[in-house]
Amino acid sequence: MNVFLNDYNDLCHEEVYKKLASVREKANIGYGNDEYTNRAKELIKRDLKRDDIEIEFLAGGTIANIIGISANLMHYEGIIAVESGHIVGHEAGSIEATGHKVELIHSEDGKLSADALEERLEDFTEEYHIVPKVVYISQTTELGTVYSYEEIKSIYDVCLEHGLYLYIDGARMAVGLAASGMDVADLCEVCDIFTLGGTKNGALYGEALVVVEDELKQNLRNFMKQRGAVMAKGFVMGAQFEALFENGLYYELGKKAYNSSLKLAKAIEETKIEFYQTPKSNQIFIIYPTSKIEKLREQNLFEVSPYDKENKALRFVTTYKTTDEEIESLKNCLLEI
Amino acid sequence: MNVFLNDYNDLCHEEVYKKLASVREKANIGYGNDEYTNRAKELIKRDLKRDDIEIEFLAGGTIANIIGISANLMHYEGIIAVESGHIVGHEAGSIEATGHKVELIHSEDGKLSADALEERLEDFTEEYHIVPKVVYISQTTELGTVYSYEEIKSIYDVCLEHGLYLYIDGARMAVGLAASGMDVADLCEVCDIFTLGGTKNGALYGEALVVVEDELKQNLRNFMKQRGAVMAKGFVMGAQFEALFENGLYYELGKKAYNSSLKLAKAIEETKIEFYQTPKSNQIFIIYPTSKIEKLREQNLFEVSPYDKENKALRFVTTYKTTDEEIESLKNCLLEI
Amino acid sequence: MNVFLNDYNDLCHEEVYKKLASVREKANIGYGNDEYTNRAKELIKRDLKRDDIEIEFLAGGTIANIIGISANLMHYEGIIAVESGHIVGHEAGSIEATGHKVELIHSEDGKLSADALEERLEDFTEEYHIVPKVVYISQTTELGTVYSYEEIKSIYDVCLEHGLYLYIDGARMAVGLAASGMDVADLCEVCDIFTLGGTKNGALYGEALVVVEDELKQNLRNFMKQRGAVMAKGFVMGAQFEALFENGLYYELGKKAYNSSLKLAKAIEETKIEFYQTPKSNQIFIIYPTSKIEKLREQNLFEVSPYDKENKALRFVTTYKTTDEEIESLKNCLLEI
Amino acid sequence: MNVFLNDYNDLCHEEVYKKLASVREKANIGYGNDEYTNRAKELIKRDLKRDDIEIEFLAGGTIANIIGISANLMHYEGIIAVESGHIVGHEAGSIEATGHKVELIHSEDGKLSADALEERLEDFTEEYHIVPKVVYISQTTELGTVYSYEEIKSIYDVCLEHGLYLYIDGARMAVGLAASGMDVADLCEVCDIFTLGGTKNGALYGEALVVVEDELKQNLRNFMKQRGAVMAKGFVMGAQFEALFENGLYYELGKKAYNSSLKLAKAIEETKIEFYQTPKSNQIFIIYPTSKIEKLREQNLFEVSPYDKENKALRFVTTYKTTDEEIESLKNCLLEI
Fold it and tell me: What per-residue confidence (pLDDT) applies to D46?
């Protein structure tokens, strides 16, 4: 079976698993005050070339978004995001459940543009509006598209001009770095707070929340505790992130997944099947006849979403485990069915 | 070093670790729809002798309390708990953050009594009061005390009479079962919803939320998703709970911790040092001169909290890993210092 | 000066003012348990031809929407409304502040259609979506358009089929009744909960919230109290609504405002100036050159909103106080400027 | 009938009623941007001897508390109040509904002391605690007791030292000023935000929220709008407060109520009936045999609350309308029954 299902179907990378073994025989300090967590934080700070940032580890993407977005918001403040944003349609109203409204911007390719943001901000001038405070984007986006450094920077310039925080959801940041050619240290220059996703890049679970802006660091741990986001055995996440960052494994896995996505895109292109979105990262979407899906599923794992009466949108996800054989096999299936 | 620090300082039990190994080579289905999670749920249902219950796995104790307590509450409904309840003083206002007030009852030993509950309910009769809806207790309590089956049943009878849900926080339920002599299946008879804590009983992380009452099952998964409580790699928890429940390991570990606590209580009794609370489970509290603590720490790990000008309350926690040598060694330290 | 500013610029209707005088010399019971409030409720029940409804009086439109919409919602439930809905863009995130997400439907004329609702509901099928529970519409709409009885009924049929509540924001219901030709008693047949706005129809302040559906009545007073919506001197609202409903004044004022709007629409039509929306009720919008607005303001009060580079959208509102002279004078201004 | 029921049973003071008449014939600007509201704000600023304060008018005491307390709170911040505080037991969980926990302090006389506050603050040092941010007191208290200027100042000193805001609920501030001998301008020196209650002192409804601290002024109007606290016809409140403050009527009515309370206290003292709390302001509580209450009610209006098996606590409230005859008559009833 060729596995293009998603990027969170394996237990974890071998190095992560080995690191956990080393944790076994100790009496570790709780709540993330342990040596593993401390080392993991130092390693990430080293890569980010910043000492003055706060790093916290959170168990999953949605709780990371909740914490990172609503950390220091006043009741009347709101968030701006594109309509296809993960927080808009895939988190069951998680942000609204914190009491904050998410104001929407339409986007064809899943990306926010600085111009669209600038224009949208003009809508919030009256006392009967929310006060915009956080701009949400993700790298990569829900549609698999990717921001360049310049694009993020131009969004951030608008944010700075208007007193807004920029939050980058990095559930797939490892691939995002590979695809955009950005260095991880660049991130600190173009936003206030972001995540480095582990769950979709070799960890059992866990996202690193990186807080650059001082105001967002205030009592962050109390807020995490309040939302059930502090893990008693924080060292389990600390150990995983130590494994991911001590020798660049995090970036390497992202590159592998990205490189496989390039190969997969080329392979699909050769089948002449239409893409739903031009492939840019490890989520590749095609438009495919509903009638043929059953057959395709016999040898391939992938996700399906609605498209039109006769076709569906299929999503193929590559990961650091994807093999050339799987890509070749999928290509053959697409050609033959 | 004798480890009496807490019950969440090791990675996990060996059997749990082995089970994780078996997960490694598969493409697992996400969000808890995998085979491990399904088997774990079936195993727990077998032990609970009930097919009509819903079981969900949550990453930690606070998020489990948030989900279990506020699942199906209306805005005007509130919770009743004793002043020393974990949700009252140790979760940074997590329940209030869901919009619900926690009304307090004073208790000397950390336990709620049916009589105290009955009396307190008389305070909520007016439209300017919250409408009580959930009663929160924990087994074992924050002070290490333990409810008998009859005690919980009498609380539940009051709940049933007044249309309230009874929620039992079972972060330490494995020890609670051993200490109370209750069978796990008894729990379904005396409450509406409860947790079986894994984090403090051999898991890397994870609590099983068991929902007995039908009304509390409604759209529970949507609510979990909204609060960031659905794990993408749900199979990691599923596998752990399969390991804990397939051969009774969960209960066995609880008994070990409890048996060690009996030995520790006896050992301390022999030193004539005063207990802060009569020992009932694996958290044992003594009153100890502040001046001697530093010395005691040289060979022992434990937690300290305020007591009076010259003394502190020390907490010693036994776990399934506690050895007789550690207990003997601690006793000797207490005698000699 | 011709007053087309809005429908809430006068103190109150003369009959309302007189009624207040009668309250002066008594020791009235607080919190809406007084004789005036009781009589007002009975009068409204009489007109609605229903005894089994609950009526509460609330100080303003936004608090009435908050109470009426989120009264008995679970945390994971959400609201559906058109993009131009008052709760979407004019209440500073009031509904989201209760923790509930508002899902949007696009509409050109400000009205929701049964078909659009039916189609939109298909989007909420997964556990990572909110669970739709309340449909929000207003009669009249923000754009001055009006629902017919049949249109509301077809929306309500969809609601009933999907287990949703239909809430009608009736801030301008008096005009809505006149414009739609509906009898007030019809409302109980086609929705679960609605308001009869007083503020914009002759009261100093106050909206009657009418709860038809039994489930929405549960502990409604506690919820109102919690949101600061119970007035100590409830009798002040009770007296006003008694005045409005004892002799049909409420409907009469709505008809007057509506009849004036018909005249105003005809007058503007004669000027050949383009309408922004076809006039349907007492809010009439025209597209007008920005350059001429200053001059128009010399003799007329109205509101202005953005339209395009050279034009603005002007809103003229008629009320029960609007005179034929004002309409004639505005027409002349429009012709002459 | 002698009316000691409460201080919100009349329509309003004659001067307030007259002022409303003057509003009738104008087209007033909405949402509190009118001339009456502007003048009322200027008058209060004059009395407070401060130009740099923000004043907003809110419809009732609970909504004023919601707005004033949670205005600029972060999610993890909490409130400290005495157990008998109005927000604790009489507002149906209104503060918790904003997501913030209220931490309690025990008090025999309903007053918070600086020492008790200082001591209680020591409890909030860990990340699993809320971060205290607002201290709530009321002048006068729920038990009718009164703070001196020095007492409030000493509480405020503790607040300043710990970075807390002090909020004073002034639902009965007019009597509070009379009873404490404080000048209204003193308030700006000893707290960050407070209310001047109108509902219980001659208005139809309305509380003036006075914001001294700059941080609390940020986007206050947006927050008010979000909570349904902005009245469309704001001028109705503006006019009332103009009437109350243009010639010192507000203070005069408070003094009348207070002076009557002194007479009533003396009258009751002469009956040798036991007070529940030593009388300090216009709420006077006595302990009274349950068996005699029915008879007492024949000529007197008052409120009753539980005390012990054979007695109840009766509350007698004086207002600016209380007459010497009513006091004399009540005294005679108490003596004769």
Answer: 98
Q: What is the ipTM of this complex?
A: 0.97
pLDDT tens for each residue of C286-325: 999 999 999 999 999 999 999 999 999 999 999 999 999 9
Q: Which fold has domain A14-247?
A: Aspartate Aminotransferase; domain 2 (3.40.640)
Kindly determine whether residue B96 and residue D91, on different chains, have CB atoms separated by under 8 Å.
no
- How far is the first Cα of chain D from the last one, in angstroms, to the nearest whole number? 16
pLDDT, tens digit (0-9, with 9 covering 90-100), for D146-191: 999 999 999 999 999 999 999 999 999 999 999 999 999 999 999 9
Choose, out of A29, A66, A76, the residue to mutate when testing the contact with D (most D CBs < 10 Å). A76
User: How far off is chain D from C121, nearest CA to CA, in Å?
Assistant: 27
CB contact under 8 A, C92 and D64: no
DSSP state of D214: G
d(CA A284, CA A276): 8
| pLDDT at C25 (0 to 100) | 78
Strand partners, C207: C58, C197
Domain B2-6+250-336 has CATH 3.80.30.30: no
What is residue B322's DSSP assignment? Answer: -
Query: Residue D9: which residues within 8 A CB-CB, separation 6 or more?
Result: C26, C27, C28, C29, C30, C233, D3
**β-pair type (C300-301, C303-306):** unpaired
Q: Where are any strands of DSSP class E within chain D? A: 2-3, 54-58, 77-82, 102-105, 131-138, 165-169, 193-197, 207-211, 283-289, 300-301, 303-306, 311-317
What are the φ and ψ backbone dihedral angles of C267, each rounded to 5 degrees? -60, -45
The alpha-carbon gap from D86 to the nearest alpha carbon of chain B, in Å, equals 10
| Spans of all domains in chain D | 2-7+254-336, 14-249
Distance from CA of A28 to the nearest CA of B (A): 5
Element (H, E) at A315: strand A311-317
Token pair, residue D5, equals 């029921």
Q: Give the closest of C92, C96, C104 to A96, CB-based.
A: C96
Distance (Å, whole) CA D219 – CA A124: 12
- Which residue of chain B comes nearest to A1, CA vs CA? B27
How far is residue C290 from each of residues B29, C305, C311, C315, D279, measured CA to CA in Å?
60, 10, 5, 13, 65
Contacts of A318 (CB under 8 A, 6+ apart): A4, A7, A257, A258, A260, A261, A264, A282, A284, A327
The average pLDDT across A206-227 equals 98
| pLDDT of res. A296 | 98
A2-7+250-336 is a CATH 3.40.50.300 domain: no
Residue in D20, D226, D233 nearest the CB of C8: D233
| The two structure tokens encoding residue C79 | 């609201």
Judge: domain D2-7+254-336, CATH 3.90.1150.10.
yes
Residue D16 pLDDT greater than 90, yes or no: yes
- Give CA angle at A88 (A87, A89), nearest 5°: 100
The pTM score is 0.97
Classify residue C274 by its DSSP letter: P
How far is C206 from D229, CA to CA, in rounded Å?
Answer: 13
Q: Six-digit token pair at B278? A: 């009569």
Number of B–C residue contacts, CB under 8 Å: 64
Same fold, D2-7+254-336 and D14-249: no
CATH architecture of the domain formed by C252-336: Alpha-Beta Complex (3.90)
Mean pLDDT of all residues in D258-263:
98
CATH node for C14-249: 3.40.640.10
CA distances from D81 to C84, D69, D102 (A): 42, 11, 7
Q: Is the peptide bond before D140 cis (omega within 30 degrees of 0)?
A: yes
**Cα A103 from chain centroid?**
20
Q: What is the pLDDT of residue B254?
A: 98
- How close is the nearest chain D Cα to the Cα of C79, in Å? 17
